[in-house]
Amino acid sequence: MEPETSARCWKCNVELDLSVKVTRYDNCPSCDADLRCCRNCRFWDKSYHNECRENVSTYIRDREKANFCSSFEYKKSSENERTEADDARARLEAMFKKLK
To answer: What is the pTM of this model?
Structure first.
C-alpha cells in the first residue's frame, strides 16, 4: 500500500504535497496555519474525549498549533469532513421534512 501523497489544510482546504516530509515547523503555503497539528490529523474528532480517537496520554491544549504527538497521521485528502454547520443544516432539513 502506497502512502498518501496529498492532504488538505484544515484551515483553508488547500491541497498539500506530502511527497516530502512535513515537519513540526512547516506551515500552509496559503494561509500560514501550522500543518502538523491535531486539526490535520486523521484521529482528530471534536466529539471524542480530548478531541482525539487515539488513546493519547498527554493533553494538547491548542489543537490548531503544532505539537509533538506521537500518534499524528495526516488526514487523507479523500476524507472530507463535514463541518458543524453542515451537520446542523442536515439535522434542520431532516426535521422540516418530518413536519411536511
So the answer is: 0.69
